Known about the structure:
six-stranded antiparallel sheet; mainly beta; Methylamine Dehydrogenase, Chain H; globular; 5 helices; seven-stranded antiparallel sheet; disordered N terminus
Amino acid sequence: MSVQTQGANEAPTCHGGLENLEQEYSYALTEVEGEIPSNLKGTFFRNGPGRQKIGDQPFGHWFDGDGMLCAFTFDNGKAHFKNRYVRTPKYIEETAAQEVLYRGFGTQLPGGLMANFLKMPANPANTSSVFHGGHLLALNEGGKPWKLDPTNLETVGEFTYDGQLESSMVFSAHGKIHPRTGDYINFGAGMSGFGITGPKPCLNMYRINPEGKLFKKTQVPLQSFPFCHDFAMTDRHAIFFVGSIVFGNMLPFLLGSKSISDQIKFDPTIPLKVIVVDLDSFEIVKTFESDPGAIIHFGNAFEEGNEIIIDGMFADNFEANDTLSNVFNPDNRFGGGKYYRYRLNMITGSMSSEQLTEVESEFPTFNNDFLGKRNEVNYTACSVDNGANSFFNAIQRITFDGDAQLITLPPGYYGSEPMFAPATDATSEGDGYVLEVVYNAYDHMSELQIYPANDLNNQVCNLKLKHHVPHQFHGFFSCDVFCDVG
């Protein structure tokens, strides 16, 4: 282990939080500042790279680190923590060999062209998770889901919905559960065949019922291969922002001389296109076009009269890829986007947008019971200049009208995606808690901070872990309890 050092008057950077966590734990969380709420019940899953190195070899991109699921379980005022790596072939074989054996999004195999020729990136199952239809899945948009046992996080295997996910089909990390029907809607980038100009890009769309059966799928045609990571959803529509972050000439990747990361770029000549898809028919019903840009992650979306209203984190570049390709560089800073609201008029075809807050934001979340209908509050991870802003170091609670409450962590403490967890006795949208995993760079330890969702100024409690948790990507809260909290 090597934790970033600092001068006497300097706060440490976030980079110690990228060190590997090799050990897998399962223990009751007994070191608690404050009191765990008795009306907080369920399991908070988080997924992200648990390691960025094999032996002395770093992966070539943050997206290539092996997926490690964490589970915080709450019941009767007690809490439990466990973590476990997803046993993909990549993880198993590279662990045994203690060297890089698989190509990744930004990782090239040692050995040059011949070692990488026609090799496809491995699926590290490291981006998000979902519990739906009785299945706990670890997700990465570069491959199939991986199923785990929710009681102990042991890997069951690659999951294809009884073969409905065909060999060429990938499955995004950002599916959404439709509150009214209970269906799980997801997508994945794909090809719909070949034309005279080459492969024909598309989005494969999937709809899975509450029993876990994939019963509907289709292909949405596109003009180019975009970096499409997330989508927005109302009660009736799925909305895809096909932005200016695109995959360039992929021949060098196929030949082995370049990684996918090397070939992805922000093209300012490509406009931002918005595709609205009917959730029942899976047909495109409207398209919109705007100035160049991209949305990486979305907040909520809903319909009001003739308009669809969508919150998203806007970016006008992809400079973040340089940081993600070299995570151990102490000069690199992990940043966010700008919080925008879009309005799409389904009658006139007009599209407008406004920036809601000046704070640099990412990872928007909200009470998922309100997905697809008007909600009053969203939460984001933020980066503010507090003397140590190499990573997200604040949480923002922002109302629909744009009133923002900002909670800044002390310099040297770094947060993550905030997650809303409903209270068991909830009667309104804000009845619940915001869960925030925080890395303490001074002590190289992590903790789970819990805030009342209606007022972030009054932190409820702080649960201390016995180790650090490497910076992760996305979480999912289930009201189910899968293990004894002890």
